């Protein structure tokens, strides 16, 4: 499938949401929600195809996300930087973002987080492997920054529906 | 002999609890749970994914190649069940494409017989 069709499809989705919900905040929430629903399903596809085992710590998780998952689904390999001293937060730096090829944010949508779907996807996928994380954009090339930066923070392990046998 | 849907549900819930108990009882720490249950008439194979989903296959005790079958089923699930937007998670899977592809995979595994699939 061509990446142009993907860019157009995503763009159509965002603009439709902007028409449906009049303010940027609501659109951001919807994108996150949709991303979440994608993430909880995508994780199975990822695990079925990539054969990666359980990650032992957050650093491994970061590596797998940047080097395997992003490569597999978006064809890019973001770099991992800015680890917090406690090792529970890191940043993904995307030099280019296929979702925003050819996109310019107009002034009246300055608080729109255009690629917020990605945050939802990451959040949903990690939740299915028992990790509660907070994901947000801290830099966006659409807003004039030089790179796109996604900050990921580990909140806690989800113990309630742990597959039995996992420590 | 085919199991009815009800029997399948009962088997699944019973097995889920047995699996949990089995992992706790295991002498090895961090046990991966019950992977195989062998009886005189059949063998039950279980594959648990990192997300907690269990794939259970009941087969003839002499049937080989179940491990790769289980992984193939995981792929088929992630394709035809999950990518179907009208399928809701945790509900019984009533997707035709899923059933069709599942049947194909089973036929391939069955043909392989007791000696395992070819190279």
TrEMBL record, chain A:
SUPFAM superfamilies attached to this UniProt entry: Ligand-binding domain in the NO signalling and Golgi transport
Q: Which InterPro entries match?
A: Bet3 (IPR016721), NO_sig/Golgi_transp_ligand-bd (IPR024096), TRAPP_component (IPR007194)
Keyword field: Endoplasmic reticulum, ER-Golgi transport, Golgi apparatus, Lipoprotein, Palmitate, Transport
Would you say which domain of life the source belongs to?
Eukaryota
Which biological process terms from the Gene Ontology are attached to this UniProt entry?
Golgi vesicle transport
Record localization: Endoplasmic reticulum; Golgi apparatus, cis-Golgi network
* Statement: the UniProt record of this protein carries the keyword Metal-binding: no
Cellular component per GO?
A: endoplasmic reticulum; Golgi apparatus; TRAPP complex
PANTHER family documented for this protein: TRAFFICKING PROTEIN PARTICLE COMPLEX SUBUNIT 3
Family, similarity comment: Belongs to the TRAPP small subunits family. BET3 subfamily.
Q: Quaternary form?
A: Homodimer.
Q: What is this protein's function per UniProt?
A: May play a role in vesicular transport from endoplasmic reticulum to Golgi.
Q: Tell me what this protein is called.
A: Trafficking protein particle complex subunit
Q: Which gene encodes it?
A: TRAPPC3
TrEMBL record, chain B:
* Gene3D superfamilies recorded: 3.30.450.70
Which GO CC terms are listed, alphabetically? endoplasmic reticulum; Golgi membrane; postsynaptic membrane; TRAPP complex; vesicle
Question: At the top level of its lineage, which domain of life is listed?
Answer: Eukaryota
Where in the cell does this protein reside? Endoplasmic reticulum; Golgi apparatus, cis-Golgi network; Golgi apparatus membrane; Postsynaptic cell membrane
Q: Which Pfam families would you find in this protein's record?
A: Sybindin
A biological process (GO) of this protein is: endoplasmic reticulum to Golgi vesicle-mediated transport
Q: Does the keyword Cell membrane apply?
A: yes
Q: Which UniProt keywords apply?
A: Cell membrane, Endoplasmic reticulum, ER-Golgi transport, Golgi apparatus, Membrane, Postsynaptic cell membrane, Synapse, Transport
Main localization, broad class: endoplasmic reticulum
Q: How does it assemble?
A: Part of the multisubunit transport protein particle (TRAPP) complex. Component of the multisubunit TRAPP (transport protein particle) complex, which includes at least TRAPPC2, TRAPPC2L, TRAPPC3, TRAPPC3L, TRAPPC4, TRAPPC5, TRAPPC8, TRAPPC9, TRAPPC10, TRAPPC11 and TRAPPC12. Interacts with SDC2.
**What family name appears in the similarity comment?**
Belongs to the TRAPP small subunits family. TRAPPC4 subfamily.
Purpose of the protein: Core component of the TRAPP complexes which has a function of guanine nucleotide exchange factor activity for Rab1 GTPase. Plays a role in vesicular transport from endoplasmic reticulum to Golgi and autophagy. May play a role in dendrite postsynaptic membrane trafficking.
Name it: Trafficking protein particle complex subunit
> To which species is this protein native?
Alligator sinensis (Chinese alligator)
State the organism's lineage: Eukaryota, Metazoa, Chordata, Craniata, Vertebrata
The primary gene name is TRAPPC4
